[in-house]
Please model this.
Amino acid sequence: MEARLNTQNNPLLGKVIKYLNSVGKVLSDSSLPMATQELVKLRASQINGCGFCTDMHYKDAIAAGEDPLRLNMVAAWREAKVFTEAERAALELAEQGTRIADAAGGVPDEVWANAAKHYDEEQLSALVAVIALINTYNRMNVIVQQPAGDYQPGMFG
Model:
């Protein structure tokens, strides 16, 4: 597969990606644990069928010291015993926030309440923003057909 647009050399998309990356930096600097952020990014990317982002966040998490077993179990997190209750709450919120078109009522109150049991207001804010941001990246990459497999950790910074 070849990308429909070269997002790295496109002046307009280059600006958009620069600002999105700035948002990502703010979130990386938040108090939401980085492991949780990477799990959420990986799960949303799997749901959205974004091979580039799935590959990137798997590799970034490995480079940051995450256990490959946990990453391999993200798609089956409900059955896996390798995630904390807080991580499970974040993964559920990520799934519900990613699949909003599948539920007429949006994210259920129970899902939000469960996440709120584990994260303070800053962390919840970061979690919501991480979910929104990864969904933006996923949609861009799926639309332009960004090929998977070419990503190397450190490629974007």
User: Anything to note?
Assistant: The two ends are 25 Å apart (CA to CA).
